């Protein structure tokens, strides 16, 4: 029996039992979904470049936007009525859903590979095939704050150091980690605007995830997940069967677990 047949049988069973479970079907390939905090809305980013605002309360589409006519790579909520989106085609967009205004501009010279949002400082980071990492301040528009250069090949992944609470913590310091096809991890200090740490990796860095208390970094490479500590200790956390790329790592918000 095929998976489609199994799904249809389960769906028919739920309908007959009247369990109150609702199904909705999505047309098109979804690249990313982001829940808007303190709301019932979800933003869906499609392969076609469309962004759909879906209401879980009404189980229907509230708004459909087409800011980019090419591949979207990232989507973030800034506020319940405000979205930030990035596309492969060097474009950054600022979407005000309340006024339905869209601001588009070219952020890099070549395609963008990753972006990250730091809501406590309203900072957005982006990295690209042009070997650069750019930091933006986002209010109504994007304002370029600084550009980091140092990687010798395409920069594929970036991640802000998480702010954790401790008595002697310095909340003014902001660090950004970046990984590249040049087999390296770099850590940048946004205050001094310099690279404060360089670590050679046995493979390209496809994904980055800081530990909850920022005492180590997990890296996804070709068939391996590395754990990097700040006393320069580097260990293979997990080795997979095969040399396929690990393009996403997620840490649990309460305990140090990684997927």
Can you tell me about this structure?
The protein has 259 residues and is mostly beta strands. The chain contains one helix and 20 strands. The chain has one helix spanning 3-17, and strands at 30-35, 41-46, 51-55, 60-65, 72-79, 82-87, 91-96, 101-106, 112-118, 123-128, 132-138, 142-149, 155-160, 175-180, 184-189, 194-200, 207-210, 216-220, 224-229, 234-239. The strands form five sheets. It has a four-stranded antiparallel sheet, with no helix packed on it. Strand 6 and strand 7 (91-96) form a beta hairpin.
In short, what is this structure?
The protein is mostly beta strands and 259 residues long.
What key attributes describe this structure?
mainly beta; disordered N terminus; 4-stranded antiparallel β-sheet; 259 residues; globular; 1 helix
Class from helix and strand fractions:
mainly beta
Shape: globular
Query: Which range best describes the helical content: under 10%, 10-25%, 25-40%, 40-55%, 55-70% or over 70%?
Result: under 10%
Distance between the termini: 31 Å
Q: Mind summarizing the main beta sheet?
A: 4 strands, antiparallel
Rg measurement, Å: 20 Å
> In sequence order, what are the helices and strands, one letter per element?
HEEEEEEEEEEEEEEEEEEEE
- What is the tally of helical segments? 1
Order of strands side by side in the largest beta sheet?
A: 1-2-3-4
Uncertain regions: pLDDT < 50 for 5+ in a row? 1-8, 13-17, 21-25
Number of strands: 20
Give the amount of beta strand, in percent.
over 45%
Average of the residue pLDDT scores: 78
């Amino acid at each position: 029996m095929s998976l489609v047949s199994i799904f249809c049988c389960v769906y028919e069973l739920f309908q007959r039992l009247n369990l109150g479970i609702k199904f909705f079907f999505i047309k098109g390939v979804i690249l990313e979904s982001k829940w808007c905090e303190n709301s019932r809305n979800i933003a869906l980013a499609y392969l076609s470049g469309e962004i759909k605002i879906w209401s879980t309360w009404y189980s229907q589409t509230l708004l459909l936007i087409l800011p980019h006519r090419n591949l979207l790579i990232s989507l973030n909520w800034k506020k319940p009525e405000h979205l930030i989106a990035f596309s492969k085609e060097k474009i950054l967009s600022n979407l005000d859903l309340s006024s339905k205004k869209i601001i588009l501009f070219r952020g890099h010279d070549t395609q963008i590979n990753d972006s990250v949002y730091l809501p406590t400082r309203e900072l957005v980071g982006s990295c690209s095939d042009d070997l650069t990492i750019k930091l933006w301040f986002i209010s109504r528009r994007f304002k370029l704050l600084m550009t980091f250069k140092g990687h010798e090949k395409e920069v594929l992944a970036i991640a802000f150091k998480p702010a954790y609470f401790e008595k002697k913590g310095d909340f003014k310091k902001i660090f950004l980690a970046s990984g590249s096809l040049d087999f390296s991890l770099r850590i940048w200090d946004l205050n001094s605007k310099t690279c404060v740490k360089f670590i050679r990796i046995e493979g390209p860095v496809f994904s980055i995830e800081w530990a909850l208390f920022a005492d180590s970094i997990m890296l996804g490479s070709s068939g391996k997940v590395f754990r990097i500590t700040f006393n320069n200790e580097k260990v293979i956390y997990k080795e997979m069967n095969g040399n396929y790329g690990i393009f996403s790592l997620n840490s649990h918000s309460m305990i140090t677990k990684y997927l």
